[in-house]
Amino acid sequence: MAGAEQQTNEHPGLDSARARVRMRVPSVAERVAEELRYQLAEGFLVPGAKLTEATVAEDLGVSRNTVREAFAELASERLLIRQPNRGVYVATLEPGDIHDVYTVRRAIEVSSIRAGGSPERIAAVRAAVEEGKRAAAANDNDGLGSANQHFHGAIVALAESARLNAIMKQVLAEMRLYFHKATVDANFYSDWLEENEKICSALEHGDLEKAGDLLLAYLNRSEQQQASVHGQ
């Protein structure tokens, strides 16, 4: 017993530090920013839309100071723009940003799919494809857009990295801002649904190189399309 007591008290400072270690809990402002980021990625907030602290605070049941902090976080990510004496607006992204965003997408999406994933993570990719098929059958273009977002999010989630998932959430929000202009064409998302099926099928069959090659070609074509739509 004495030995055990001596061992326990050997590093009192370390024990005290361990006792203070806690899981980091996101602040309320971070949770508000996450909700707004989600609304951007799902297409609920459109480019140029004005956001007010009072309205968002009332909708989410938080203080205006909290919303102000969330706005600042999203402005640093270039998802919102604060215009002096006018207010806060959803960003309208510039054509020059397109290549940068797709460079990030190629880096994290292609590497994630080439590494494969657990059966549960692969099933989530398949679920997003099937979600897209249901939306297409219902002629639900907005639903197709969300399913496409979920598909690419599920690909990055294969890596099971919280950091990559966080980066991808911002990227998906930016992409939806680009896609608002492209979706004047009602077939915009349905044209990619067949590609999603091929990529998912290769992933399910364990042909990870093929899945990666298909996804890389997909992203290259998508970038070219976006550059054309935005006059680049």
TrEMBL record:
Alphabetized CDD domains for the sequence: WHTH_GntR
HTH gntR-type domain ranges (all copies): 26-93
InterPro entries xref list: GntR_C, TF_FadR/GntR_C, Tscrpt_reg_HTH_GntR, WH-like_DNA-bd_sf, WH_DNA-bd_sf
Pfam families per record: FCD, GntR
Domain of life per record: Bacteria
SMART domains, sorted: FCD, HTH_GNTR
Alphabetical list of Gene3D superfamilies matching this protein: GntR ligand-binding domain-like, Winged helix-like DNA-binding domain superfamily/Winged helix DNA-binding domain
Molecular function in Gene Ontology: DNA binding; DNA-binding transcription factor activity
UniProt keyword terms in alphabetical order: DNA-binding, Transcription, Transcription regulation
Annotated protein name in UniProt: GntR family transcriptional regulator
Organism, scientific name: Paenarthrobacter ureafaciens
